[in-house]
Write a structure and sequence with these properties.
Largest sheet: 6 strands, antiparallel
Oligomer: single chain
Number of helices: 3
CATH superfamily of the largest domain: Probable tRNA modification gtpase trme, domain 1
Helix content: 10-25%
CATH topology of the largest domain: Gyrase A, domain 2
Length: about 190
């Protein structure tokens, strides 16, 4: 009989460290995709405030909840992370999808994290423009994804099927940034 046990999206990788940057796999559960029905986003936001302790964040933002966070994920779309939601609780204001196993999430932290990420995303990562609390849908290398700025660094969300590619591209960028720092004497 075949073994059909689920494996983590990054396999055995817990952490990679190259130079001053660390890449760490993260598991978020549950992840619920929410798509507001037409003209229902404001009512949905008020309903979520009562259920999870946070309203729907504005475009490009995320907010902490009582046991996780909610982040913008596109036009009239959000991800609620760490909070169990039911369709009944939302009163027909939105469609829900369980996306817990659809995404692979890695955290990039350390002094050169923004230098590494700048090689892979077309975003201005300056802390004055992309501070903790910000999120963007953007390509990471050639993969569609989400970049979430946290107090510690960056969370990178990609489809689970490209998790290995994300690690390879990040390791290559981490190696280049570490090499540049060594040449500069940093």
């Amino acid at each position: 009989m075949a073994d059909l046990s689920a494996e983590p999206p990054f396999g055995a990788m817990d952490e990679r460290r190259i130079g001053s940057v660390r890449l760490v796999s993260r598991a978020h559960s549950p992840v619920t995709g929410i798509a507001a029905f037409r003209d229902r986003a404001e009512m949905l936001s008020a309903r979520l405030q009562g259920i999870i302790g946070a309203p729907l964040p504005k475009t490009g933002r995320w907010a902490a909840t009582s046991s996780g966070f909610v982040m913008w994920a596109g036009r009239d779309r959000w991800f609620v992370v760490g909070e169990a939601l039911s369709r009944d609780a939302l009163g027909g204001l939105a469609a829900l999808t369980d996306e817990t196993h659809a995404w692979a999430v890695a955290e990039l932290v350390g002094g050169g994290a923004s230098d590494v990420l700048a090689r892979l995303v077309p975003l201005d990562l300056h802390p004055a423009l992309f501070a903790p609390g910000h999120v963007a849908r953007a390509p990471i290398g050639h993969m569609p994804g989400c970049v979430r700025r946290t107090a510690a660094g960056f969370e990178l969300w990609v489809w689970r099927s490209v998790a290995g590619t994300l690690v390879r591209e990040l390791e290559a960028a981490m190696t280049r940034v570490a090499g540049r720092a060594a040449l500069d004497g940093r």
